[in-house]
Amino acid sequence: MAKILRVASLISGGKDSALALYRGMRQGYEIEYLVAMVPEKEDSWMFHYPNIHLVDLFAEAANIRLCKGKTKGIKEAELEDLKLLLKKLDVKGIISGAVSSEYQKTRIERICHDLHLTSITPLWHEDPLKLLRELVDLNFETIIVGVYAYGFTREWLGRTIDAETIDELVHLNREYQISMVGEGGEYETLVLDAPFFEKKIKLLEVEKTWEGQSGYLSVKDATVLDKGSPG
């Protein structure tokens, strides 16, 4: 029997990387590490910024080792920071949550090529609406923590992605052409629970910031709880 491929999974704490990780597990990959890059600036081209500090709790809830690196978030240079981090890991492949972003996918593939790793993109070119419905069907608990496109309001911050939310995202897609999965930076998410979590993330203190037509929900305090715990 062929040996299961040992891989690392790029995670941000958001829904796409979490679903890609789940898919990778179901496909039989052995997840050795979660890998997260922490940008020093909000407008990183590659990496998630809002609440990236919660990846530590994500890793604890999933019970998978976390390998975390820092980057100044400068276009292209931040890729070298990721490459240096991945070079240290004893893995054969990298899972990422790219859905339709050629920018993201091609740059990760370039890094994998240079390091002789396999690039694994379980969500690539799948229907965005189906991906959102899959999250709900699998009981991922996902909230919206940042909105950056016309059509969103302050009330979207902290909102759970459920059937009603998906219907409204469909409307915004038709009205304003936003990406259904937010891959163009229209919105950001945070996963609080997932099928592969051994524990769940509980938010204890949050703060909303709204400026003009965009805003974000900042998590000031959070913890992990056993799945059977209230809340």
Mind explaining what this structure looks like?
The chain is α/β, with parallel strands linked by helices and 231 residues long. The chain has 2 domains: 6-120, HUPs (Rossmann fold); 128-226, putative n-type atp pyrophosphatase, domain 2 (Alpha-Beta Complex), CATH 3.90.1490. It has helices at 15-26, 55-62, 77-87, 102-115, 128-137, 163-176; strands at residues 6-10, 30-39, 66-71, 93-95, 118-120, 141-147, 187-193, 199-211, 214-226. It has a 5-stranded parallel beta sheet, with helices on both faces. The protein has a 4-stranded antiparallel beta sheet with strand order 7-6-9-8. α1 (15-26) links the parallel β1 and β2 (30-39). The protein is globular, with a radius of gyration of 17 Å. The protein starts with 5 loop residues before the first strand and ends in a 5-residue tail after the last strand.
Notable features of this structure?
single chain, 231 residues, alpha/beta, putative n-type atp pyrophosphatase, domain 2, 2 domains, 5-stranded parallel beta sheet, 9 strands, globular
Summarize the SSE layout with pairings.
Layout: E1 6-10, H1 15-26, E2 30-39, H2 55-62, E3 66-71, H3 77-87, E4 93-95, H4 102-115, E5 118-120, H5 128-137, E6 141-147, H6 163-176, E7 187-193, E8 199-211, E9 214-226
Parallel strand pairs: 1-2, 1-4, 2-3, 4-5
Antiparallel strand pairs: 6-7, 6-9, 8-9
Helix pairs in contact: 3-4
